[in-house]
Description:
Layout: H1 6-12, H2 18-32, H3 48-53, E1 62-66, H4 72-79, E2 83-88, E3 100-103, E4 118-124, H5 132-137, E5 139-150, H6 171-176, E6 181-190, E7 196-204
Parallel strand pairs: 1-2, 1-4, 2-3, 4-5
Antiparallel strand pairs: 5-7, 6-7
Bound molecules: S-adenosylmethionine (SAM).
Amino acid sequence: MFSPSEGVRQTTERSASPLILQEIDRLTIVAAMASFDRPTDPAIPPAAWVMRWAGLIRPGGAVLDLAAGHGRHARALAALGFRVTAVDIDVSALSDLAGEVIAADIETGSWPLAGRAFDAIVVANYLHRPHFPHLVESLAHDGVLIFETFGQGNERLGRPRNPDFLLAPGELLQAFGTCLTVVAYEHGEEQTPRPAVRQRLCAVKGAAPRSLL
Length: 213
Ligand SMILES: C[S@@+](CC[C@H](N)C(=O)[O-])C[C@H]1O[C@@H](n2cnc3c(N)ncnc32)[C@H](O)[C@@H]1O
């Protein structure tokens, strides 16, 4: 999806240390990412959908914020007493997070969270379909998947426009509806915080929760 700029590498490799070269590669990769992929503005509050369904997560449980960006969800959930793990290719905005931070390119190589189980997984404004089975595997029993990202039709309204980043109507339902218990689902256009088409899902691994929020 993106590749380090060979030009930058060639001009520096004779003199720089491996660590500096690694950092240059990281910055070049981040700069080459589509704007949708970059960490969002830190001033953006956590998504209402994520905070709504946080009430279903086991108190004090372990929560994974995948492609966390500035960690708006990890921070808000840590403040609620959850043990958070934030994963992103660019963790430069996460150094002060009260939780575990994992720097990983989650679109290449093996799933960095193999063997771990989370009481909740949050995926917001990020889509990489090959992860869907990993998300299910990495949920503990009664774990909650809270997913919100852009849907088809968003290309009329703003970024992202790339179809790879846009969910088809019902796509999250189809992907997770047979292996998780769907608690809530939405797909449609909304005007706030800006015009966008979004799709959202909350689903649990196990039986439906006894009470909704
Ligand atoms: C639009 S931001 C969303 C950030 C956060 N989830 C939020 O809602 O505020 C997308 C995030 O995906 C991360 N990302 C993109 N490609 C990645 C990859 N291959 N591996 C890990 N993280 C990636 C970006 O660094 C960025 O932080």
